[in-house]
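User: I'm writing a tutorial on reading structure tokens. Could you give me a worked example: one chain, its sequence, then its tokens, then a sentence or two explaining what the tokens reveal?
Assistant: Sure. Here is the example chain.
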Amino acid sequence: MSEVKISFYLKEYRIHVHMDTLRAIGSPKRISFLIHEDYEGFAVIPYAKRDFKSHSVPDEVYSGSMSLEINSFRLCRSLISRLNWKAGSSYRVSGSINSIKPGEKIAVFNLKNAVQI
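And here are its predicted structure tokens:
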């Protein structure tokens, strides 16, 4: 499978989850982010429940009429301080798809490999 991507637009405190990433993890209705305590590992996972940890993926994202962009001041500020990213810049990170059990996939990214765009 081709590599997947996620982008962080730090000027707007926005995370853009690329369409290929969403499709590669099974086109879920909801997703959640996981971040390793060392801030190197980051994952996008399908998430079944509606709660404060999940983000809805509208049907319009999969039809191509809109993209999935999630605003998170707190997450973006954490990345800036922990990874020494430039506050007004944007970064793209390539990742891979991992199977956690049969039929369930997650997108995994190493934030140390981010490329400024």
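What the tokens reveal: The longest helix spans residues 73-83. The longest strand covers residues 90-101.
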